[in-house]
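Before the break, one more example. Copy the sequence into your notebook; we will annotate it together after we see the structure.
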Amino acid sequence: MGYRTLRQCVEDLEKTGQLIRIEQPIDPNLEASEIQRRVFQAGGPAIYFASVKGCRFPMVSNLYGTMERVRYLFRDSLEMLQGLVSLSVDPADFLRRPRLYLNLKTPMAAWYARPRKVRKGPVTAVETTVSQLPQLKSWPDDGGAYITLPQVYTEDPDNPGLGRSNLGMYRVQLSGESYDTNEQVGLHYQLHRGIGAHHAAAIRRGERLRVNVFVGGPPAMNVAAVMPLPEGLSELAFAGLLGRRRVPMICRPRQLPIHAEADFCLTGHIETGKLLPEGPFGDHLGYYSRVHDFPVMRVENVFHRHRPIWPFTVVGRPPQEDTIFGQLIHELVGPVIPKTIPGVRAVHAVDAAGVHPLLLAIGSERYVPYEKPRRVRELLTQANALLGQGQLSLAKYLLIVAGEDGPDLDVHHVPDFLRHLLERVDWRRDLHFQTCTNMDTLDYSGDGLNQGSKVVIAAAGPERRPLPVAIDSRIQLPAGGQFRNPRVILPGILAVQGPPFKAGETGRDMIVQRFCVSYSRTDAINGFPLIVIVDDSDFVARNLSNFLWTTFTRSDPAADIYGIESVVCRKHWGCLGSLVIDARAKPHHAPPLVEDPEVTRRVNELGAKGKPLHGII
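Here is what the structure looks like once it is written out:
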């Protein structure tokens, strides 16, 4: 049976040697977060902060820091869940289709999936204020303290009730110059999130949207809040299945339900017609999301249970703890995609590139199975379907290949996938742009908040070219010394260091365009089908992660893709030579995350002999 409370989970992890305690006082301002990052990078245990400066509540982090620990936390339920999710069925549907569940040997699934209505619960035992909560700040330039593992609960104003509720993880800013202390908090939700539909309905009805924010409780609730579930599965049902316990919800007349076993709960509503500046916040692309106007939650009550624990995580340039969430999501819902989109065999949102900037997919070419040589046809149908599928719609670069050309190709082995694509791609016809479209809220490579472009690169058929693994002596960079230090990243991929971005009168820097026009399709540099112009080619060549992060977080396809001997035919853009991506930092990009040296020094001391992190960091 799963954990009923967060404290039960913490005590179990400590008993089994999967959690360490830090008894000395730790500052929630930067220090706790850097400890979390360092321990996660080391593959270390969960961390219990017994003494938090300026706060009476202990904190815990890195609960989900390794897949081994996640599998341990949910050891009684993962196999059952994989069976249910792969069939895209609603566990509450047991009465109508009992054979399905008996075959899965999960007749209890329908019971776990039904939230349990109660009149009272531990979470409302004590009342406090926002300012008494841990004021966790993760990065030096964050605009205030944040809840980083919130479970934001809303219901559909048109059809209220537990069955049509939404539980999502949307960051909550507790402090900052914009908010009235103890009365307002910032509520940042991005494109394609469930709360958005509820908020839109409330606006249409002329009502205020009631919101409850839960913190803590059993780990299953956090996982449910981040899980992109198929139709027919609610987050509360999923949490019940994952935790093998019905989720108890305090249901009182004219009040929004409260999770009875949460450690903390903020109750309130979104202020009608009011937006306030939220941010900056160091986010999971590895940059600060800038200050923008977002909805405001008017706080009515702040509750907590006796002996509560405040859980937190830290996001930043991948990998971080949320990377493990991504791996768990793939294990559970990855098998659903091929059943949802015919012909799609596998997808991989690349964590090292910030997840949404780069999506890899393997599809099928069955439209004209007798066509020789094979070319891209059905792949475009599948690509369009992927870009219309939940949060996959936020993908910026979608690279898709035909599984028939490489039956053993693994979409999760990025170097092999890129090699396979670059051996086959035809830049004259295989680039398909969507311009003036939506982009991930956290991606600042486009021309405004939520605005930018996408490109689908689809490749099918036999190999068109061998891929070089070394720089040919015949390759010459343009005269003048502005481009230098070419480095081979992977077979067929060349990084070239360019000058810092300098915008002209039109706001664009045409130096990459001049790089391209200095070559013809017959020049030796075209042996590399992909060339990336970067600020520091040594950094990009240091490892695959640096290449993926730089290339796909610092470029907007419509603005930053160029080509040697580019052509437009019937409004279709392509090129006869190499494709060139300008992945230099631009003035409109958000600044990257950098740790505070003094905080780093203090955390280093915790790793000394006799200190709590000795042998871990």
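The CA atoms of residues 165 and 574 lie 46 Å apart. The chain has three domains: 6-317, 322-459, 484-582. Try to locate both features in your own notes.
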